[in-house]
Design a protein that fits this description.
mainly alpha; 4 helices; 0% strand
């Protein structure tokens, strides 16, 4: 009589982080809320020049608008790259701190845009 041979399942690794999904998931949800808000308010921030005209606005306002539009363009690349890296890091305890930092870093560009929009100087 033959004995059935079962493939032994690998034992779960002792250093596997069972909570590795929390930081990237939280960052994903927050980025899904903050990203469109930053895009909406950042896109509408150009209307701050309506009162002073495009040629007579203060240099501080022009600098803020340049920072807003630059952050909207390049910051979205940074956000996506950091969030993707946070999800793709190995789910080991060794990588828990870099994963949390990358998840937090993915939120910085939209938060920076919202900060700039709500603190626009007078034209």
């Amino acid at each position: 009589m033959t004995t059935p041979h079962f493939a032994a399942l690998p034992a779960p690794a002792a250093d596997r982080d069972g909570h590795a999904w929390i930081a990237p998931a939280l960052a994903t949800v927050l980025l899904a809320l903050l990203g469109p808000l930053a895009l909406l308010f950042g896109g509408l921030s150009g209307m701050a020049t309506d009162a002073c005209g495009p040629d007579d606005c203060s240099q501080a306002l022009e600098t803020s608008l340049t920072l807003i539009y630059g952050t909207l363009f390049f910051g979205s690349l940074v956000s996506v790259a950091a969030l993707l890296a946070a999800w793709l890091l190995p789910w080991r305890r060794r990588w828990s701190q870099p994963r949390a930092w990358l998840a937090a870093a993915s939120l910085l560009p939209p938060l920076f845009v919202l900060l700039l929009v709500f603190t626009l100087p007078n034209g």
